[in-house]
Every structure is written in structure tokens, then in C-alpha cells.
Amino acid sequence: MTDSVxxxxxxxxxxxxxxxxxxxxxxxxxxxxxxxTVECKVSGxxxxxxxxDSKAAAxxxxxxxxxxxxxxx
Length: 73
Known about the structure:
InterPro entries: dsRBD_dom. This is DRBM domain-containing protein. Residues 3-72 form the DRBM domain. Keywords: RNA-binding. The chain has helices spanning 3-14, 55-69; strands at 21-28, 35-42, 45-52. It is an alpha+beta fold. It has a single domain, classed as 2-Layer Sandwich (Double Stranded RNA Binding Domain). Strands 1-2-3 form a three-stranded antiparallel β-sheet, covered by helices on one side. α1 (3-14) packs across α2.
């Protein structure tokens, strides 16, 4: 996991709310140029959306946005 993903997981664990975290992943484009879109949801509400060439980078961006939306970052 990356820094923002870890920070988000740790925050929700401290709040005893880690079960509220979910991710939605989608890829588009040809196999040689895939774009990943990852949504970070807390209690079913989208808190961040990341788009990148790799799933990990998109997830990190989504987590970073979620941290800001939650007032943590």
C-alpha cells in the first residue's frame, strides 16, 4: 500500500470504521494504454476519484482526495 492509502486505512481503524471503506475500480482503453479510474468510498459515499496509468497510482490519488474530503490531510 502507499502512503495515503495506509494513512486512510489507519485513520478509519482508529475510528473503528474500517468496514466503511470500499473501492471501485474500472479500466478503459486498449491493453497497451490502459487508464485506471478508482473511486474511494466511505460509507458508500465517494470521497475521492483517481485516474492514472496504473491502478496503484489511481488508488493513491483517490485516497489522497478522500483524506482531504475527511479533513485529515
